[in-house]
Amino acid sequence: xxxxFADRGGTFTDIVTVTNNQAIIxxxxxxxxxxxxxxxxxxxxxxxxxxxxxxxxxxxDAAIQGICDIMGLxxxxxxPSEAIEVIKMGTTVATNALLERKGDRVVLIIxxxxxxxxxxxxxxxxxxxxxxxxxxxxxxxxxxxxxxRYDAKGNELIAVNIEQVKRDLQAVYHTGIRSCAIVFMHSxxxxxxxxxxxxxxxxxxxxxxxxxxxxxxxxxxxxRGDTTVVDAYLTPILRRYVNQVASQLPQxxxxxxxxxxxxxxxEQFQGKDSILSGPAGGIxxxxxxxxxxxxxxxxxxxxxxTSTDVAHFKGEYERQLESEIAGARMRVPVxxxxxIAAGGGSILFFDGSSYRVGPKSAGSIPxxxxxxxxxxxxxxxxxxxxxKIHPQYFPSVFGIDGNLRLDKDVVxxxxxxxxxEIATATGSHCTPExxxxxxxxxxxxxxxxxxxxxSLQRGYDxxxxxxxxxxxxxxxxxxxxxxxxxxxxxxxxxxxxxLSAYGMGLADVRAIRESGVEQPLTPALxxxxxxxxxxxxxxxxxxxKEARSKVGVIQKANLKYEGTNSILTxxxxxxxAVMQQEFETEHKSRYGFIQSDKSLIVESISVExxxxxxxxxxxxxxxxxxINEAPKSVEIVKIFTADKWHDAPVYRREDxxxxxxxxxxxxxxxxxxxIVVEPNWEARLTERNHxxxxxxx
Length: 697
Fold this sequence. Notes:
Elements: E1 2-8, E2 12-19, H1 22-28, E3 36-40, E4 44-52, H2 62-71, E5 84-90, H3 93-99, E6 106-111, H4 117-120, E7 142-146, E8 149-150, E9 156-158, H5 162-174, E10 179-183, H6 192-204, E11 208-211, H7 212-215, H8 221-247, E12 253-257, E13 263-265, H9 277-292, E14 297-303, E15 308-314, E16 319-320, E17 323-325, E18 328-330, E19 334-335, E20 337-340, E21 346-350, E22 355-361, H10 379-385, H11 408-426, H12 432-454, E23 466-470, H13 474-485, E24 489-492, H14 499-506, E25 509-520, H15 526-543, E26 551-561, E27 568-571, H16 576-591, E28 600-611, E29 635-641, E30 644-652, E31 661-663, E32 666-669, E33 674-677, E34 681-685, E35 691-695
Parallel strand pairs: 1-5, 5-12, 6-7, 6-10, 10-11, 14-23, 23-24, 30-32
Antiparallel strand pairs: 1-2, 2-4, 3-4, 8-9, 12-13, 14-15, 15-20, 16-19, 17-18, 21-22, 24-35, 25-28, 26-27, 26-28, 29-30, 31-34, 32-33, 34-35
């Protein structure tokens, strides 16, 4: 039987499989250049595999192709369902559809008089000095205004005109629109009118009906409406992808990663929960492996091919209730991830006066220049130029036929041309490696600034944290990032190159339910909140249908000062003083002050029900060499760092043993990633095969 954990990223799709099938292991052992095989206790193995997300000449879907490759099937052979126990996936399908505005056509059904409410939004000015404001394109195509109304206390002021709604919806249906978002005033508390209109839409034949009181049952019409529109826009395309995968895997238990860091059954996977599906798997993987290694304060750093994702962990997953992704505002719990367009595929260019890195990415096709598809220079190419990536230690999966190594010669040629262009334009004569180092310095600064945003700017001292680096490119810049931030310790898991996929296997099934409150926090409110929490917990448990008794429950209250909009989340307690103290502590840490004279408002309550899943074990490794015997390097190469060339021994990670110490400069190569140890760092391997990098004082 196989357990498959997959993450489809922008450049690569990563697959981690746990199996006890000896025949598969025997066959894959003949191709150890492409597959990493690690023995586990109880006669099981972990198989790690990486392939390009887009390769239309070779396959249609990378995740399915990866499973076929592991099982030894051609793309035309059916996958035997009985051989697979479960598949847990993260996908960028919905994210890409949102970025490229390729979701389904949507009609917005809203209370009369509020037709333009979502377009007007909150009048935010992200760039206060911008003279020309470019509003993001709306995701809905048409608007139907319904003459209905409840007041804020639940009194029905205007009933729904059923016949008029039928005529309006029928007219829109005839234009080919099949997805609708229903958003009425005060429907988070009084949803009867939304239910009536949803029933009409269903009778007419709309295939996707997103109703705001179900999608985001919280106050604020604009954010609730935006979230509902996003759900209506993305769920159909997500459903088609899920059905496509499921059709090739009949009878297989299929689960997807949600943006909040929990798994959900494929049939319950919705558009609003899918935007950070892949990155969420990375956060879970980083946090769980770091905790196993004994670290409780963690900055996660996921550098992939297209982007870099960073997050902060201090004992529990951090989530944010309101977020804006690709110009779309959403109000659902998502992991607090800061994403910037700086990855291995970020394009390097000179604009005539300065170096630029990104935000555009070369993606899988054409990919970086070294991928042999005629791509532009990227961050990956800069590391090739600097000697930090060597083609002989990468699998032969590049070129049109997917069977060639990285092309170092074209990288050198392109950097020479770029150095000449810069010299002609500026009169500054730099060597090709100095040009590459300049671009890398910009990329590193951009990524370090992303970490500062989720740590230093929120009152956390990153020098007390471990930097958990992962993603295909994370190990190449780990020391440079830590140096920029003053961090002293780096953690690199043996599956760091595919940790987002591995995180799918470490995740639990989670169901979160929320409800708006918007009342002062007083002792008299506590019984009402307790009753509401019990109701929300019942709803969440109903979503997790299996093993209802074997679950954990987390109860949270979202609080704010009266007259403000800055919400902080605290643990729910039966005593007001306990919640107030936690709120003030967090407020002092975040903003530097408290306002004792202001009363606290309970903005909303949330309940999270967690069903623990079986997770892969991590085997112990034993030292067989003498403690005085140092590891042997494969070869000595040159790397350009700190403005000059250094001799750097190359070590294979599988040759390292517990308590081995490597003092930089050095390169540690794996089948799925490369780790660069900078001159002022020391690397040490633990008995769990964890690589710890410590800054030399």
